[in-house]
Amino acid sequence: MNDVIYLDHNATTPVAREVFEAMVPWLTGSFGNPSSVYRLGREAAAALDVARGQVAALAGCRHEEIVFTSCGTESINTAIQAALAMDPDRRHIITSAVEHSATMKACEHLARRGYEVTWLGVDSLGRLDPGELKAAIRSDTALVSLLWANNETGVLFPVGEIASITQAARVPLHIDAVQAFGKLPLDLGTLGVQFMSFSGHKIYAPKGVGALYASHRVRFSPMLRGSQEEERRGGTQNVASIVGFGCAAALAAERLNTGDVAPLRDRFEMSLLERLSGVRINGDRTNRLPNTTNLSFEDVESEGALILLDEKGVCCSAGSACSSASVNPSHVLKAMGLDNQQARSSLRFSIGHSTTAREIERAIEAVVQAVSKMRALRPKGSPVLAA
Ligand code: PLP
User: Fold this and answer.
1) What are the residue ranges spanned by the domains of the chain?
2) 17-255: same fold as 5-13+258-377?
3) pLDDT 10s digits, 85-101
């Protein structure tokens, strides 16, 4: 594992040592059900309270506005259905063409169930035009659901401006903050957002734990009915993972302003631009997550590059989703106007807190070698993949 240079932190992060250590007691001796009245149970309930406070502190909201879930996807689905339940007569949803599949699939499903969905586009830098959002809102708009930080490019949507627009129009707003949480400062107390989704495994907690912010001002309707989480999310809580999530949130709060990852990302990008021709940075470089870069390499097929990089111990991801039959170009890059070929030649690298300058130098070398090798193996200008 030590030889691996892990540059895929937007996919998932390793569990931090402090997080693991905080979780262990809740997987061993302190195994009580937080709903039980005896001491073992009360201790587990108290641990949930601490974790709720830690997540709420990072989000800048009240403790009771945090509902623990099983993942970001569950939070997103819960938020969407809770917003729609607020006024069943409203049948119009606004989202964007570059959302994570959790939002896209939920909205596509709702479209098949009779809802009308407006998919806002983005410009060539992946930016959303708030004017277009304003113009799209109607009297029957039930929900606006948008990303804060794009998982593929890191590009940020202007959440403050978006919230001002939806507040003025009195339309519920859900923000998918799964990638931004813990990477950018957040003060939900002043933002004017009704729902926000978070996930543990993007901030050094384990997979399978998430949280949903539901403003105390909204009437909340659960997706999983049951008595836990104040009847907002049924199911016995995953105590150990929630404790881990709380610990990870506290660590993220300490690291928020350290600025440790952006210089490494910038060094990585600049070196590749200097050393290779035909490299393009995808997305708005000024409003981006500090840890993410999405690059297209002319005449390189990203799936092949991934394999070569994997052989060199570098983990990153392709701007495409593989299905058994084909490599689909990324919907995010396509929405930004990249053609199939450009989208199929893109790679995402996402840096983490444990990434070192030495690893970045080795990764630069590996990418230069992989790209040069792939270019040497194929005639210049030939299609990256058959259309
Ligand atoms: N939203 C965004 C922007 C993401 O990047 C992800 C995960 O990649 C999710 C939602 C889903 O989170 P989870 O994996 O916890 O379901």
Assistant:
1) 5-13+258-377, 17-255
2) no
3) 999 999 999 999 999 99
Q: Does any ligand 1 atom lie closer than 6 A to the CB of residue 151?
A: yes
322 in active site: yes
102 lines ligand 1 (CB under 6 A): yes
Residue 243 CA to ligand 1 centre (angstroms): 20
Parallel/antiparallel/unpaired status of strands 327-329 and 320-322: antiparallel
**Cα(274) to centroid(ligand 1), Å:** 33
CATH placement of domain 17-255: 3.40.640.10
> What is the dotted CATH code of the domain comprising 5-13+258-377?
3.90.1150.10
Residue 71: CB within 6 Å of ligand 1?
Answer: yes
pLDDT in tens, 42-101: 999 999 999 999 999 999 999 999 999 999 999 999 999 999 999 999 999 999 999 999
What is the whole-number distance in angstroms between the Cα of residue 77 and the centre of ligand 1?
11
Tell me, using a 6 A CB cutoff, whether residue 237 lines ligand 1.
Answer: no
Burial (CB count <10 Å: 0-12, 13-18, 19+), residue 190: exposed
State how beta strands 292-297 and 279-281 pair.
Answer: antiparallel
Cα separation, 168 vs 111, whole angstroms: 26
Count of Cβ atoms closer than 10 Å to residue 379 Cβ: 7
